[in-house]
Amino acid sequence: MNTEVFAARHIGITERDLPHMLKTIGVESMEQLIYETIPDDIKLNKPLDLPKGISEHEFLSHLNELAKKNKVFKTYIGLGYHESLTPSVIKRNILENPGWYTAYTPYQAEIAQGRLEALLNFQTMVADLTGMEIANASLLDESTAAAEAMSMLFELRSRQQKKDGAVKFFVSEEILPQTLSLLETRAIPLGIELVVGNHEGFDFSDEYYGALLQYPGKHGQVNDYASFVEKAKANEIKVAVAADILSLVMLTPPGEWGVDAVVGTTQRFGIPLGYGGPHAAFFATKEAYKRNIPGRIIGITKDTDGNPALRMALQTREQHIKRDKATSNICTAQVLLAVMAGMYAVYHGPEGLKYIAGKVHLQTKKLANTLENYGFEQLNTAYFDTIQVKVKNTERLREIAESKSINLYYIDDTTVSISLNEAVSDADVNALVSCFLESHELKEKSSANIELEEAIPTHLQRQAPFMEHEVFNSYHSETELMRYIKKLERKDLALNHSMISLGSCTMKLNAASEMLPLSWPEWGNIHPFVPVNQAEGYQEVLKSLEEQLNVITGFSATSLQPNSGAQGEYAGLMVIRAYHESRGEGHRNICLIPASAHGTNPASAVMAGMKVVVTKTDEKGNIDMVDLEEKAEKHAENLAALMVTYPSTHGVFESSIKQITKLIHDNGGQVYMDGANMNAQVGLTNPATIGADVCHLNLHKTFAIPHGGGGPGVGPICVAEHLKPFLPTNPVIETGGENAITAISAAPWGSSLVCLISYGYIKMLGTGGLTKATEAAILNANYIKGRLKDKFDVLYTGERGRAAHEMIIDCRPFKANGIEVTDIAKRLIDYGFHAPTVSFPVAGTMMIEPTESESRAELDRFCDALLSIRTEIDEASADETDNVLKNAPHTLGMLTSDSWSHPYSREKAAYPLPYVAENKFWPSIRRTDEAFGDRNLMCTCAPIEDYIEA
Asked: Which residues contact 52 (CB under 8 A, 6 or more apart)?
């Protein structure tokens, strides 16, 4: 074995496994399997034009050399991004811990109680600091969160406002520039009219439905918005506030003014800058809007035994249920980052946060007062951490500051703003002062004490207590926090325990060598708005990744800006929209979407201002060509796009795909390919070959970024040459095409830090390894299909009887025995496995995707578990519900209880197969009561006993 070949470490199947697996599938060779899986007319006829793979050691050395090209300055640019200090106990035990970063979205609550508790902490922290009633479990970034607020308030318009056509949304001129750009992107297709101005001159007319304020303002001014909010409420205008979360430790929380939503980012709660992300945004609102709030909410409920339990609440709001009726396409959260930010609050507690905020504010006052003592004019009448200073010439100041490795924000020729952070020391303040003195040829005065004037008016100083719950006042030593983190980790099943075979989600290995650089300061401490020449290492990685993705997809250009798959969908559709408008065909607004599509597809289309027309699927699960042709021709004059997932959501390479794409083009539309299943294409076919015009890619699926318990994600779009001019830009650092659409996410290159992972994945696998990985994914799926075929019906296959990289098993026949698909999912927990995707895209089914990373031994354990469960299904009956499936999962408390009245043994419940005893995972709760949790929504850390019925 060549120990330097990364593919051998990443791909779980060995040459020794192949003969047995191929025999089980019923083919002679891998070539035959691929021939029978992928249609001939879309196969690539040559290898990917990429270098061969490099070893892990070579990659880390390479990335170390690139890291040296990044210049880590002391950066005081602000604009929503600040250097923060990640406590080492959080870095080591969460960010660098696969027990946290390889977990999946907590849809199976019984094996996710740890991260659910961590997210409940996050929600409580946000609700307390903002003064709002409820908060969600994080969003993508501050700017997209602000756009979600604008959309939510638009949806919440009164009947009269809708009737009167109230579509104006006031935006304070104090708003962050990247947020304004993103609001422009979102507003146009929804018919919202943005009006930017000074909040003091706002006329509160009935043409407006909402307003957005920045607190503090983009250059640091702290305004008192109480009277503005009072007048807005009197005129039925709802108000959202974009707030700096650390400032809320010292400032009056917006909730006290009666606002309707508060949004922002928790980046400065211990999250690296990472050249723009990933970071966890927050969204807090009134409980009355609980069914309108975007994203996920963690709620408190009870389990079968009446014990407290946590789960994702009110999921009927989500776009997978509401589809084109959804008001948001958000299908993810920044869970890993939210967990870190929440733990930052747990570790420091309210008193620690007061110290940190107080230190930042004190250093800012020192700087302001020192500069004023030298005769500089400081413009902010009230501030927390950011001041504006008038100078003779900002270019001269920039030259001097950058020579001292310092970045400031240069507003215009004579005005600069400086945003301080928790890492700032007295020496840093002195260095800043020296830049100003040198730029104005002033000499330093004697070090007489300067009296620090109050910078926050008394009426804007926070009085309300916050974070009084025990969890924020218990774990302030490293020992205690380390143990608390471990206690939560033990409640969660992640990839470091067993295979997570989720169809459409691709839970593959996130190699340690790909992850290590995320902790390096040369990558973590770069602000997204530094001059590009200070981020040469990043620029080389990002441009190389774009080129790699161009080769893999067959397209001409890539934008890495979208920071989730749903954002990628939206970006792709907005680029298509811009293309049609550039040709004088802005009337094209019909989007055809197959019935089997992800729920985010129709939600994204509606957000992009398109009208969704659903097309049928045939009895084999393929797109119904007759119905598609009829609808494409019917809407030819207004056809904008088709959204198609390939291979299909049913796990099949449809042979008619080129016929489908030609039909759309012939009728004037563009083809958007959803890249959720791209890991079945890499090296074997690609979106360009099938005839698509644009695709988004889930880097957190195909290209190995970990799911992190439900985020981070990256959803770049790749486009054909004619769509290249419309790729999105950023108002601070220009990106995108020559006719670029406005921003899709806050940072120029989105979540740049985790793009290092995908860059490493492609670099180490190389052209041959990438293709082998795809072949292995197809092999593994068909091997599971072969092992299960006599006991489970596979719902859909290709024309030659093969699955792609995933397949759907039909569990509906088991209802005759009283067994639902949910019972099978919960019973798999007893066998040590996370359930596959349940009831999507077909109710009562399971979609299984093993990925290329799993070994044959693990595949066999999984198949043995399902076959054993199949026997248990045969033993069950609809008349007797006290069985091992209906009672699953079985907890340690249940198994060690003095009483046992069930008709099966404890051994059968806990150790159904011999391998289970060697590596038993114990769920911490029994089955959750979903209905109770929704009827009694509680989503902050109040005393549990208050919410559990006697």
From this structure: 766, 767, 768
Cα–Cα distance for residue pair 577/604, rounded to 1 Å = 12
The string over 525-536, giving b where at least 16 C-beta atoms fall within 10 Å of a residue's C-beta and e elsewhere, is: bbbbbbeeebbe
329 pLDDT band (50/70/90 cuts)? low
Q: Taking the CB of residue 820, how many other CB atoms lie within 10 A of it?
A: 17
- What is the tens place of the pLDDT at every residue in 28-84? 999 999 999 999 999 999 999 999 999 999 999 999 999 999 999 999 999 999 999
Q: What string of DSSP letters covers 727-745?
A: ----SSS--S-TT----SS
Statement: residue 949 has pLDDT above 70: no
Q: List % helix, strand, coil for the chain (3-state, nearest 5).
A: 45, 15, 45
**CA separation, residue 93 to residues 100, 343, 482 (Å):** 8, 11, 7
What does the DSSP assignment read for 629-675? HHHHHHTTTTEEEEEEESS-TTS---TTHHHHHHHHHHTT-EEEEEE
Mean pLDDT of 249-276: 98
pLDDT tens-digit profile of 511-526?
999 999 999 999 999 9
Distance (Å, whole) CA 144 – CA 847: 31
Q: How many alpha carbons fall within 13 Å on the CB side of residue 763?
A: 23
Give Cα 682 distance to the centre of its chain.
23
Q: Return all residues near 288 (Cβ < 8 A) that are at least 6 apart.
A: none
Residues 6+ apart with CB under 8 A from 431: 74, 404, 406
Amino acid, single-letter form, for residue 579: Y
Task: Give the span between the Cα atoms of 467 and 345, in whole angstroms.
Answer: 9
Give residue-wise pLDDT tens across range 110-142.
999 999 999 999 999 999 999 999 999 999 999
- Which helix (H) or strand (E) covers residue 127, if one does? helix 113-130
User: Residues 688-693: what's their mean pLDDT?
Assistant: 98
In 3D space, the residue among 183, 172, 179, 239 whose CA is nearest the CA of residue 210 turns out to be 239
